[in-house]
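Students often ask what a holo structure prediction actually looks like on paper. The answer is less mysterious than it sounds. You provide the chain, you provide the ligand, and the output is a string of discrete structure tokens encoding the 3D arrangement of the protein together with heme C.
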Amino acid sequence: MATHCCNLPFSMRPRQSHSDLESDMKYFQRSAILTSILLFSAALAPAVAEQSSGPSTNVAWTIETLNLLRSGDPERGAMLNTKLECVTCHGDNGVSTNDTWPSLSGQTAGYTFKVLRDYREHKLSGTQRGELMAYIVAEMSDQDMADIASYYAQYTLPPARIASVQEAAETLDLLGDPTRLIPPCSVCHGNKGQGSFPDFPALAGQSPEFLMRSMMDFKAGFRGNDVYSRMRLIAGTLTEEEIESLADYFAGKGIAVAQE
Ligand code: HEC
Ligand code: HEC
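The corresponding structure tokens follow.
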């Protein structure tokens, strides 16, 4: 079993401590924008404590939203990706270079759009770095989000992170576990972990620690932006060992998808 997931006690904490964030940010101190985020995050602590109530998301898949998504301009998205410094943390073309931050390359446009809206509207403020992303995207318009979502969606999924055989995880992906009413992951996330329309995220080749953290956040209820609690219910039933194995399994799936 891989060890990279196991030193993640913070995955059970509702939000980042300033020291976690500071050590991440050391890499980025050359950037004025990112340094100001670091300062801002210290002032943010009391606000973070207030969980937003109300619906899990403000995104509804209406004709207007779908038309907005269709109007996404990848060239303008590329410009925003550079201008807003997304590239600093999410890597060139959205392929993250470390195991903890998510890749965005090849992500379905609908999911990227939805999660950016959710960050901006503080629907993910209970997660470890949700308020960091909320601050980063605070000034982005819906059109900006549609443009940048179409930019990442035009690339292939990231390459596989780790080579690992995870039989229990593969069974959960392909068959689920009817005895515990767990549907196969592939029903929603695609038979290759490539995601599907409108808001099912791609998992293949994703950063393993991020996958682990997301599932633990759903399980603990820190992340509640999933419509109809679809992921909260599933993650709540999975054991921590299964979650770790699933994180390794999907992180190892990338190349097969990317080569097609
Ligand atoms: C300082 C580093 C940093 C910068 C700059 C940054 N991000 Fe992020 N981003 C993160 C982290 C960390 C997460 C994971 C948050 C979590 O664990 O809840 C994240 C999450 C995301 C996600 C959700 C991924 C998923 O699969 O759920 C999207 C989409 C995203 N960022 C887009 C952007 C865009 C667009 C920009 C530029 C406008 C940007 N990010 C700038 C660090 C950064
Ligand atoms: C009924 C449909 C459904 C099934 C089955 C399902 N998921 Fe999900 N999952 C979702 C949705 C929808 C989201 C996005 C939630 C949101 O809006 O942020 C999600 C999000 C996730 C995320 C967070 C990804 C990210 O980029 O932030 C992970 C990890 C995940 N699912 C893993 C799994 C695994 C592993 C299984 C199988 C054990 C599974 N899911 C089964 C619907 C499903």
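Residues 1-52, 256-260 have pLDDT under 50 and may be disordered.
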